[in-house]
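Technical appendix A lists one of the benchmark inputs used to test multi-chain prediction within the project. The record comprises two sequence entries:
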Amino acid sequence: MGALQSSPGRPEYSDLAEKTGFSFEQIGVLHKRFKQLSHNEETLRRDNFNEIDDLAFNPIRAQIIEAFFDRRNFHQNGEGKVQEIGFEEFVVVMSHFRPPSAHMTEEQRGKTRREKLRFLFNMHDTDNDGTITLEEYRHVVEELLSRSGTLEKETAKCIADAAMLEVASISVGHMEPDEFYEGITFEHFLKFMMWILDNRKWECCSA
Amino acid sequence: MPSGTVSHGASGRLRGLFLVMVLVFLEGSVFTVAVASSDQHSPTTAHSGGHKATDHGSHNNTGKAFPVLDLNYENVRVPFEISLWVLLASLMKLGFHLVPHLSNIVPESCLLIVVGLLVGGIIRGTGETVPPVMDSKLFFYILLPPIILDAGYFLPIRPFMENLGTILIFAVVGTLWNAFFVGGLLYGVCQIGTETSSILSRIGLLQCLLFGSIISAVDPVAVLAVFEEIHINELLHILVFGESLLNDAVTVVLYHLFEEFSGIGSVTLLKGFLGVISFFVVALGGVLVGVLYGILAAFTSRFTSHTRVIEPLFVFLYSYMAYLSAEIFHLSGIMALIACGAVMRPYVEANISHKSHTTIKYFLKMWSSVSETLIFIFLGVATVAGPHDWNWTFVTVTVILCLVARVIGVVGLTFIINKFRIVKLTTKDQFIIAYGGLRGAIAFSLGFLLKKEHFPEREIFLTAIITVIFFTVFVQGMTIKPLVELLAVKKKQEAKRSINEEIHTQFLDHLLTGIEDICGHYGHHHWKDKLNRFNKKYVKKCLIAGERSKEPQLIAFYHKMEMKQAIQLVESGGGIKMPSAVPSTVSMQNIQPRPPTKPAPERAIPQLSKNKEEEIRKILRTNLQRTRQRLRSYNRHTLVADPYEDGLSDLFLKKQKMFQIEKKPASNKVPMIQVDLASPQSPDSVNLLDEFGQANQQEEEEQGLMMKPPSRPREAKKPSEEDEAKDPQKLMRCLSDPGPSADEDEDGAFLP
């Protein structure tokens, strides 16, 4: 995927490499792409993402782009959104999709999994209250169906409701009739996504 | 495995077993008689008496009295015998499940081979020649296609495609390695040999290689038969099974190549090169033929909305034609069949009616089941039939070499493959893959096809092949189950495909495609997405009729799930809960955000208590609410504009309510009522008070309470009992359109 265009000893690369687990070569490739997307500027804005043609067909495009500007994904315990991101944040967000390296301990593997699921959770939990409410889930399903041409709001609602019910049944089990299920917390989310991850590939072989 | 006699006790089983034994004995004796009389052409035997009609001379019977009762066996001989064989096979299958514990220890395939041995032994014992049942033509053109079609049609596409690289490497490289290793070393052994080597040393290198190529292919029938019963996880299953399917191309090429070479006797480099090319032609050509026929079938199914009855026929015919067409050109028929089934399935299923889908499923399962049973029985019979030529050296060396080659091959290839895989294959996985490399009837049939003139050592080969088959099926087949338990291999997850999984699968797909686009890397998600878009835009429009071509997969899946739940509800009389993994009392109302101004009576207690009175009270309270059951009913806002659906779904709702409420309190399962708050738009608690009045009267008889759907407040219909009985049927019949989606059923383990 292209030779290194910079010497491997660049200090910021080694920093990033350590933080995110990418190799120097991969960071080099990402940097090239970053420059391409940002037209050689220092920061990326949302418009830069909107220029990517291939993304136009993606039904959840908006959410993906938002994820890049979400402080929660920068691993700095921040919150809220930013308007523009630098290369470091770009790499950090991309690191969620890095294929696991061969020499990972079980613990590390568990940790990266948690991070990935946290990323996914953040994508759903748009108002940042720590739970995915029914409204937010409905929004997810609507977005998924948005590109298919038929915007059947009612059906989307029903699907989201059914899905939510399922999560609640699995996570909580027993609820009194007047209890109210606030929303999917991260722990619940972890539980039921774990087995989905077992069956699906999460990584894309970037770089 | 579900037994048909689940409701009987042990005595019922024994009774059934006894009956089956009687039937088998009767049938066996008839069969022996049939075989015996088939070999006699003259009517002067003790069995048939003097009235057996011969082909000629039956017309000048003027001197005889008119035969009131006549015996004419010759006319019906062939169909009769075929039916007898099939009947025997089916009875055997029945019998095995009646014998307690047997099916847990011994896999069915072993039992069937033993039965075949017995039958062959009996026939031989009565002095008759065993019929040459394992005719290669019969095997390849009649017995094998249903099994492969069944496998291909229900192939889980996603795991197959995700692991395609691994599967191909195992199938191609692995089989090649096995063939050359076994063939080459066998040749070496034959040359070195002991005093018996005078026979063996005549076996040339090419013959050995040919033998190697026959014996090295993992057999899909055997793998299916054994793996079906051990329920290992999907990954391993698809790896071994996919390998067994795809190695057909390699086997075909190698077989023809070596057969050709041994016939002519000269090997040139050019021929070797042509061999390599022919491999690609065979494999890709087979797939192409399959895809072509698959598209034809999908296209045909688009127009079958008026002739639903023959829909399944098209599926079967096109697939079989694909197989035969591939065989005409010596392409890989198995790959054609798989490709045809896999390609046509999503489109055909979107077009055909629900009943046709069920028909196809059950016919395929039935045929493949019978075929498989027959194949194993015939293997047993053919073993008895011989002709055999037992050569200790050859046979033992073959068996050992096969095992060794398989293990080395798997380990070596996994080492290479793991460098490219994200989910690595562990040692346990490798062991199962190696151990699961069973040989079966395909090897035998290929051996049977060899001509005696070119291959004087044919009998030695056949004996060795049969020994290897027996060894793998019996030893490996019987021990794989305890080994799987011992090694604690991950089993197949029983959880049904849920709506959540579907949502997140799609979400992840789009997410990963988006990330790939952002980092500019055209990975496999990108191409998959492109293919999907192409499919949606052009292909679906061509091949799927009407409205369904635009239905997104998620919605199709949701409808399918609802349909399944609805059918389940009706079939079980309403006593079950929604099939989720965990029984819970969570219902819709726990999730819906509670609007702050709702009055108190809407609080519902969904859980029935044991006390009848309390139950009734609760039912009343429950019915004060909106009762639109979103989860188990047909949503009125379905995409498909079916004029019948609107009216019937209401009746269906009522039926559901009635079923729920009729639950006996003594039932084991805690009955659940799923109720939900209606959408805030239509409060009509006022209308429900009318119902309350009616409900009060009715509740004494405990007939159940009729709920009216909130959308039609004026109609307080109370359909009578007979109507209720008819409604679900009407509903089912009218719903000719919504077929299942492209996703696979959780029905893989149907073959009991």
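Chain B touches chain A through 67 residues (CB under 8 Å). The mean pLDDT of chain B is 72. Comparable benchmark entries are summarised in Table A2.
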